[in-house]
Design goal:
This protein is of the alpha/beta class and 328 residues long. The protein has 9 helices and 16 strands. Bound molecules: NADP nicotinamide-adenine-dinucleotide phosphate.
Length: 328
């Protein structure tokens, strides 16, 4: 532990998410961002000076070897999440890993087994779940009666073929990048994991899915439709109940919060989701409370992603077996 009682954090990766992530996280009382690791010393030093971070390392291994670092924020391309989480856990660090943790449920099991065996904490970085908006949504939900259907969408226009999201070998794709939020929202509203999924994707030859549409069946006739893509701009989470509908227009970023119960706008205070996420995880490291999202949530996410991709590849619905199996 550092001299301060605040959790000493290191960042792995110097990517664009940090523009948003670092804007308010340093207001979190229990967290201090003290180091950054990059594949090159120049990029690490430039990043450290831009964001006022005291130590920079020219490789991920070197940063993980710093004994003063207690927790690591992993914001690398998707295909590297699991490998570097395992390395960080092996180095004795708690890990907050960006979403989606992985498209393979077995990775999630391996990582949480390793964390638990070492008494370390691991959380998947779905910052939207930490917002007052998400909490309020679940508080108001009973007002619409029994839920009959869910709809979740997240798409934005991405035209840069060099973006990590466009690289198949880095586990890019719209379902991975933004569709994972739709799965997260649907699972939150349903209160369970889907039992059955069906997916269709639009994938240019050799590329990633630039559009993905899925149906998640939760049992008792409750279904969610999810729509993700890189070719339009849209975001919503809607629960349709017997007695009405509850809608979030900016569910994932909460910029600004926007919730409607039918035609009634429900006021919600804006708060920075990344700061709330870091506060939650840092407090849990210090023994105050638990991480909001744990093994069950990360496993439900990865199982659903895995099953959706399998369905889109085969053209057939896929049943999900607990706790790990996905079968056609
Ligand atoms: N929660 C959110 O709101 C949110 C928003 C955006 C992104 N994300 C997640 O954050 C992660 C990173 O996204 P990003 O937009 O920050 O990506 P990005 O701008 O492309 O940055 C990725 C970083 O990873 C490192 N890296 C290591 N190997 C790489 C490789 N083979 N190709 C490219 N970069 C490599 C690079 O840092 P060095 O070269 O310095 O090592 C690079 O700066 C993704 O998992 C994404 O899903 C989350």
């Amino acid at each position: 532990m550092g001299a301060s009682s605040a959790v000493q954090w290191g960042i792995l990766g110097t990517g664009s998410i940090n523009e948003r992530f670092l804007r308010h996280v340093r207001e979190a009382p229990d967290a201090e961002f003290v180091a950054v690791g990059s594949r090159t010393p120049e990029r690490a030093a430039e990043f450290a000076s831009r964001y006022g971070i005291p130590r920079s390392f020219g490789s991920y291994e070197e940063m993980l070897a710093d004994p003063a670092i207690e927790a690591v924020y992993i914001c690398l391309p998707n295909s590297l999440h699991h490998h570097w989480t395992m390395q960080a856990l092996a180095a004795g660090k708690h890990v907050l890993c960006e979403k989606p943790y992985s498209r393979r449920a077995s990775d999630v099991v391996e990582a949480f087994d390793a964390a638990e065996a070492s008494g370390l904490l691991l959380m998947e970085g779905f910052m939207w779940r930490h917002t007052p908006q998400a909490r309020r949504f679940m508080e108001v939900l009973p007002e619409i009666g029994p839920i009959r259907a869910i709809h979740a969408s997240f798409s934005f226009r991405l035209e840069d073929p060099a973006d990590v999201r466009m690289q198949a070998d880095l586990d890019g794709g719209s379902l991975m990048d933004v569709g994972c939020y739709c799965i997260s929202g649907s699972r939150m509203v349903a209160g369970s994991d889907p039992e059955r999924v069906y997916g269709e994707q639009v994938t240019p030859t050799g590329g990633v899915d630039v559009r993905f549409t899925g149906v998640l069946g939760f049992g008792d006739g409750l279904t969610s439709t999810i729509v993700s893509g890189f070719q339009s701009d849209h975001a919503s989470l809607e629960a349709i109940g017997r007695d009405g509908a509850l809608l979030l227009r900016e569910p994932w970023t909460a910029r600004p919060p926007a919730m409607w119960l039918g035609d009634l706008k429900i006021p919600i205070e804006p708060e920075d989701p990344y700061r709330l996420e870091v506060e939650n995880f840092s407090a849990a490291i210090r023994g105050h409370g638990r991480p909001l999202l744990g093994r069950a949530d990360a496993l439900g996410q990865a199982q659903t992603i895995e099953a959706l991709y399998r369905s889109a590849a085969t053209g057939a619905p896929v049943m999900l077996d607990s706790p790990l199996g996905v079968r056609a």
